[in-house]
Amino acid sequence: MARFLIVFGIFGFIFQVHCSNQYDNYTLVRLHPTSTVELDLVRSFQDPSKEVSVLKESRGVNDTLDILVPPNKLKFVHDFANATGITLEVKNRNYGRTLESEYQRLPRRRVLRGFNLYGYNSFGDIQGYIEELANKYPSLVRLQDLGKSFEGRKMKLVKISSQPEANNPIIFVDAGIHSREWVAPAMAMYLINRLATDSDAMQIGGILDGVDWYILPVVNPDGYEYSRSSSNKRLWRKTRSKTSNSRCYGVDGNRNYGFKWAVSGVSSDPCHAETFAGSKAFSEPETRMVSSVMMDNRQRIKLYVSLHAYGQYLVYPWGYTGDYLPKQWKKLDSMAKGVSVAVQRAGGKPFKVMSAGKWYPAAGGSDDFAFGAAGIPYSYTMELTEGYEFTYPENLLSKVMPQFYEGFKEFGKRIKKEFGR
Ligand SMILES: *[C@@H]1O[C@H](CO)[C@@H](O)[C@H](O)[C@H]1NC(C)=O
Ligand SMILES: *[C@@H]1O[C@H](CO)[C@@H](O)[C@H](O)[C@H]1NC(C)=O
Ligand SMILES: *[C@@H]1O[C@H](CO)[C@@H](O)[C@H](O)[C@H]1NC(C)=O
Ligand SMILES: [Zn+2]
């Protein structure tokens, strides 16, 4: 009988209904600040017991703080909203079920299919695909070994250049420092695919004409694979490192960079699930590898983009403070707005453009390090997609990734115009 059920695919359904997920009965709540006073209150929201997890910070008035609330904390959150007058929206009464159903659809059993351009691939399939491209187009796509992740996964930088000897300006894109933000590595892989295979990319005026692209598609492969390993682990954000003096795993890689490290918006508690900054700056091998790429190529890298999810934002330094902006902020702002317009023209949603730290200061981010320490003149964090938290449906990737790609073309055009010879 059991065999019969498995054969007909009913097993998955039964599993979904009866097997409890860690997030069973957790409520996804959005707190909606409608004034600067309410925004300050939302920013001060804290659950002393640390059982409430923050999925997305609010980055301004009318921009929600999204939190995942266990059943025993629901009253606490309602009381907070009630006491402050902040609008509370219940988005999903059982987030565990949402994670479970996504996990059931995860193509981890499609081993034989290999890499799927419009899907969420395993780290192994991603590595396989970039090696395939490097073999197929050896004069265009080169791989540089960067070293190994904490758990020993090999990290390879993808360098795409039609004139590798020309000393062109470089655009450096990375993705996936935060494990659960699956859409980010998917977009990095889509970018690699288009750069390497579009017939017009190399033409005069094409995206590779006069600009080289360096892409690291999965900065945190250990965390990425961990978040794929079960629906209970789907929301893992940090790396998977462990030091002997703590029982907890992982560091928030995007709080670990050595520029104004830990001055704001971080936790010093290794058990903090979101923003533990590490025992020291660059404690993580993964962030050290990214910083080496930046420092080794600092003369030529003119633009750095770090891909994240979710909420459609394109933010620039400083991230560590909202008190002041870099003196070049207008150039940063105007390039970001140009990119947003290009994505919109392609049918996509506009990005909210602002300095990262304006409403939500957080130190130790890769964008601040690129700008402030490596001296890269344009540096951004790009938060992709909204409306689905971290579980962006796989079947929508083929719609949005080509739209985002138009934004990258715009980046390329502007970098060539300002820095090309
Ligand atoms: C979730 O709620 C349902 C209905 O109230 C209850 O039967 C179930 O035991 C709860 N699950 C957990 C893990 O608390
Ligand atoms: C926030 O939304 C309200 C209601 O839609 C609107 O009246 C207000 O202008 C918005 N404020 C900002 C800063 O966007
Ligand atoms: C919110 O506060 C009001 C007034 O203090 C009270 O009457 C109401 O029951 C509260 N609602 C909730 C959901 O706690
Ligand atoms: Zn992120």
Describe, in plain words, how this protein is organized in 3D.
The structure is a single chain. The chain has two domains: 23-95, Alpha-Beta Plaits; 114-419, Aminopeptidase, CATH 3.40.630.10. The strands form two sheets. It has an eight-stranded mixed beta sheet, sandwiched between helices. It has a four-stranded antiparallel beta sheet with strand order 2-3-1-4. 34% of the residues lie in helices and 16% in strands. With 421 residues, the chain is of the alpha/beta class. Strand 10, helix 10 (329-345) and strand 11 form a beta-alpha-beta unit. One 2-acetamido-2-deoxy-beta-D-glucopyranose is lined by residues 20, 24-25.
CATH class of the largest domain: Alpha Beta
What is the fourth-level CATH superfamily of the largest domain? Answer: Zn peptidases
Strand arrangement, largest sheet? 5-6-8-7-9-12-10-11
Bound molecules: 2-acetamido-2-deoxy-beta-D-glucopyranose, zinc ion
Number of domains: 2
Radius of gyration: 21 Å
Low-confidence parts lasting 5 or more residues at pLDDT below 50? 1-18
End-to-end separation: 71 Å
Overall strand count: 12
User: Would you identify the CATH architecture of the largest domain?
Assistant: 3-Layer(aba) Sandwich
Number of helices: 12
Q: Which geometry do the CA atoms define?
A: globular
Percent range for helical residues?
25-40%
Q: What's the mean pLDDT score?
A: 93
Strand content bin: 15-25%
Stated plainly, the CATH topology of the largest domain is called: Aminopeptidase
Q: Which sheet architecture does the biggest sheet show?
A: 8 strands, mixed
Task: Find the structural class using helix and strand composition.
Answer: alpha/beta
Order of helices and strands: HHEHEEHEHHEEEHEHHEEHEHEH
